[in-house]
Amino acid sequence: MNETSPATGPTPGPGTTPGRIVLLTTSHRVAPGLLSWPAWQALRTADAVLCADGAHPQLPYLREAGIAVAEASPTAQELVDACAGGRTVVVVATGEGEPALTDGLARLAGSGRVAMPELELLPASYDLPGARLLDLVQVMDRIRAECPWSSRQTHEGLAKYGIEEAYELVEAIEAGDREELREELGDVLLQVVFHSRIAEEHSEAPFSVDDVAGGIVAKLIHRHPHVFGEERAETPEDVKEHWLRTKAEEKRRTSVTDGVPLGQPGLALAAKLASRVRTAGLDVPLPQGEGIGYELLALAVRAEADGVDPEAALRAAARVYRDAVRAAEGLDA
Q1: What's phi and psi for 5, nearest 5 deg?
Q2: Beta strand pairing status for 88-92 and 20-25?
Q3: Is 123 exposed, middle or buried (0-12, 13-18, 19+ CB in 10 A)?
Q4: Sign (positive/negative) of CA torsion 154, 160, 164, 169?
Q5: HSE, side-chain direction, 13 A CA sphere, residue 163
Q6: How many of the other CB atoms lie within 10 Å of CB of 92?
Q7: Phi and psi (nearest 5°) for 114?
């Protein structure tokens, strides 16, 4: 006579039908209880539903939906035995994904001595694009609370790192290094999340990373009426016209120079001012003066008019100069 286990059901005798094992995986980045329809079907029709973690965040929602879940950690053999007679057992995977169980099932299957049940990996919830950003926010919360260095940082103290990371990102782009580009984008993103986390603690005007994201989403939608509204844009020039018009409406600026950061590198500053002047259709003669500064200003304005980024052009020339210096030293470029 077959024995019965409260966790896995009856132990099969010889000649029984192998059955089916469903390993149900969920994402912690999706709210518990939001499962796919195939997942709910598998749970409702299963002969047994098991979970090794009694504190699994999905369990309260499964039980509320009338799914009986047994807290159990069967071995691979016990799970195979529980499926005998054509039974279906659903295993709600823990965060680690049940590696010991899956390895055990693989060994049994590879032995050739066991009639294996049908094995199915069923994702019950999926990460949406951008879901890993939630992990970054959670990690930053913990670092801010527990790290002796990070917990003491301020916007002012971190400002220099924002500049450094932006330059390193530009360098990765210009070098064409894809791996470096991915890493530097992460470093820039960290600055955004770090500053947003610090901003939550402000006593008078706090805001969070959600406020930051919400603000840029609203701005993008407003400045792209040809995408989210009824206006039309057939060319990049049309898009730029929409952008400048809506930006002017938002900022209510009195001068085309408003909003141009004076602390940026000199060539970039000169080119930005020239771009504003040209876009506004103003006729502003270049100031005349003695010295290299006025000569560089004229070069930057000329470069902008020709569609050349003077900062990027100078960096490219400087890299060639650096290589020449290393060659003169007898070093590899």
Answers
A1: -105, 135
A2: parallel
A3: middle
A4: positive
A5: 9
A6: 24
A7: -125, 135
CA dist 184 and 178 (Å) reads: 10
Helix/strand/coil for 63: helix
Phi, psi at 20, each rounded to 5°:
-145, 135
For residue 185, give every residue at least 6 positions away whose Cβ sits within 8 Å of its Cβ, in sequence order, or none. Answer: 169
287: tokens are: 């100031």
| Alpha-carbon dihedral sign for residues 288, 307, 184, 145 | positive
Q: Which one-letter DSSP state was computed for residue 28?
A: T
The pLDDT tens digits for 9-43 are 444 444 567 899 999 999 988 889 999 999 999 99
HSE at residue 51, side-chain half, CA atoms within 13 A, is 21
Distance CA 79, CA 22 (A): 11
Do 311 and 304 contact (CB within 8 A), yes or no? no
Q: Is the pTM of this model over 0.90?
A: no
Q: Report the alpha-carbon distance of residue 293 to residue 296 in Å, rounded.
A: 5
The helix (run of H) or strand (run of E) holding residue 240 is: helix 236-251
Q: Helix (H, G, I), strand (E, B), or coil: what is residue 289?
A: coil
Q: What angle do CA 218, 223, 226 make, to 5 degrees?
A: 115
**What mean pLDDT comes out for the span 282-306?**
93
**Cα Rg of the chain, angstroms:** 31
Residue 2 clears pLDDT 50, i.e. is over it: no
Tokens 């020339």 belong to residue: 317
Residue given tokens 């159990």 in the structure block? 72
Whether residue 78 contacts residue 6, with contact meaning beta carbons closer than 8 Å, is answered with no
